[in-house]
Amino acid sequence: MTDTPQQTSHPVPPDERTWWKESVVYQIYPRSFADSDGDGIGDIPGIIERLDHVADLGVDVIWLNPVYESPQRDNGYDISDYRSIHHEYGTMADWEELLAQVHERDMRLVMDLVVNHTSVDHEWFQRSRRGDPEYEDYYIWREAEGEGPPNNWESFFGGSAWSYDEVREAYYLHLYDESQPDLNWRNPAVRQDIFDTMAWWLEKDIDGFRMDVINLLSKAPGLPDGDPDSEWVGAEHFVDGPRILDYLAAMDEQVLSNYDILTVGEMPRLTVETAREYAGEDGPLDMAFHFQHTKLDYDGDERWSVGDWDLPELKEITRRWHDGLADDGWNALYWENHDQPRVVSRYGDPEEYHRESATLLGTYILTRSGTPYVYQGQELGMTNAQWEDRESLADVDARRTARELLDSEQHDSFEDIADIVGYRSRDNARTPMQWDDSEHAGFTEGDPWLQVNSNYEQINVAAAREGDSVREYYRSLIDLRTEYDAFVYGTYSDLHPDHERLAAYTQTLEHPDGRVSERMLSVLNFSDTTASVDLSTTVENADLLLSNYDRDTIGPTSDHEPYEARIYRLE
Predict the structure, then answer these.
(1) Does residue 545 contact residue 557 with C-beta atoms inside 8 Å?
(2) How many domains does the chain have?
(3) Which of 105, 24, 21, 67 is nearest to 374 (CA)?
(4) With CB atoms counted within 10 Å of each terminal CB, which end of the chain scores lower, N or C?
(5) Are 439 and 448 in contact (CB under 8 A)?
(6) Rounded to an integer, what distance in angstroms lies between the CA atom of residue 321 and that of residue 417?
(7) Residue 202 sits in which domain range?
(8) 212, 336, 485, 494: which is the annotated catalytic residue?
(9) What is the longest distance spanned by two Cα atoms in the chain?
(10) Strand order in the sheet with 516-525
């Protein structure tokens, strides 16, 4: 790696610069990050103890998964009290200390906002099921239609989206687990309670919200049946529903616009066109997560499957989203999160080319315009785990799928389904953070709530502090992104969209008169064989800024080794 040249002058005026566009976000899953008290469950004091690891990466923002009071049936996404901290994670005083420590390190803290549903243990639901006049319409209740549920909508986790409540003697809607009843956003009192809660947290000086399945809040009037052949039955009546933009506009007007914060929405089935409505220049949010690139390795539309994927399709998705939001919107760039299996096990080679493919995949999200999100352990190249039986799984979705597959009589044992269930389980992202090679990877002195990945002795933070590691490469990528505005504000151009092994693209920052201020070239070999591409007509002079191989200087048109990533500054 050569010395990084000094940053050239750039044409981004101060009034067009935005802190959240220039940030790198690090996601922390509290249950699995660090345990301070030996009970096997990650907690807020543990996060504080390990905070310097995050700060040393050079990231700007921490996104904290839910730490609110919860029965933990879906690991915190079933909230029973929005204004309390779950006792296993600590106290409100612990959380306040975390916020202070984050800010002291010149980072910001974004909280998870889960307002499509609550827990069945929430006081609102308990009062609603008893018919309390003040709360009876806080959720979506329907009387039984004959002997079955009110319509054919399905839960994302499988089965009917309706459960019968013996207390109220009616069905309630839950688009996710039966322990997560959907709030009735048509009720103004619900909206006001949510807005008041958001303002309560913002007044504590947090720096924004990641919003869970936020485009599902509005359900079609009358709750009509859905297409029975749809991948998610009923989705056409609750994804991007008829009043969703009204609800989010009111949220923005009453709460969000009063603060300088980051807002990002998780949005199932998001398209470029709808993303512009949610997160365009006049939209209520700053950016949104889509899932198109996370489905490349599906076999068709089936989530619980494994299929082949090809690089041109990934590049087409990248181009479509960049071009579609270039003038009206902003991209959220990510590979992993708490719901996605480890990317190096999906799109890389965790066995023969672990470091090379992990660093290459990091290069792809950190050298393009948008706001990158790095999930805990991704900077180490953490991989999927091995799951021996159904009991070893904690993910409610994976356990249900395993049970259904075994009950179908098409499979005799868990061994028959281990490959697919183990590959897709959300538990792969939730195995404890690997800090060192001591027992339980240094995560806890007790018994961890979820098994530690067996490769922790080789892949861990302590080992990554030495030598040319994945972590150190991520630090270099983040440094480059800070040094050159082209990686943030530049225009993306795919030079060889049809190449099946190599991705070659530029990020160009221009002055209004067309003069180039900065132009960066990234060339990535997504294969386990040597590959080449002709860039002679594009590149006149190039300085190698960073490579995940041991190189000081090399021209961009030479052969690329397996999973090699190179980043150049073009003259």
Answers:
(1) no
(2) 1
(3) 24
(4) C
(5) no
(6) 35
(7) 23-117+188-393
(8) 212
(9) 74
(10) 491-494, 502-510, 516-525, 565-570, 542-547
Determine, yes or no, domain membership for 360: yes
554 within domain boundaries: no
CATH number of the domain residue 263 falls in: 3.20.20.80
DSSP 8-class letter at 228: T
Alpha carbon distance 186, 246 (integer Å): 11
Distance between CA atoms of residues 87 and 107, nearest Å:
25
Asked if 266 is an active-site residue, the reply is: yes
Which residues have CB under 8 Å from 231's CB, separation 6+?
301
State pLDDT tens for residues 383-436. Answer: 999 998 888 888 888 888 888 888 876 787 888 888 888 899 999 999 999 999
In this prediction the pTM is: 0.95
Is 475 exposed, middle or buried (CB count within 10 Å of its CB: 0-12, 13-18, 19+)?
A: middle
Domain-located, residue 364:
yes
Q: Specify whether the CB–CB gap between 249 and 190 falls below 8 A.
A: no
CA dihedral (432, 68, 72, 60) positive or negative: negative
User: Does the annotation count 16 as an active-site position?
Assistant: no
Q: What's the CA gap between 286 and 199, in Å, rounded?
A: 18
Q: Does residue 44 belong to any structural domain of this protein?
A: yes
Q: DSSP H helical segments within 69-208, as ranges?
A: 92-104, 123-129, 188-202
DSSP secondary structure code for residue 181 in this structure: P
Placement of tokens 């969000």 in the chain: 256
> Exactly one of 60, 88, 207, 266 is catalytic; which is it?
266
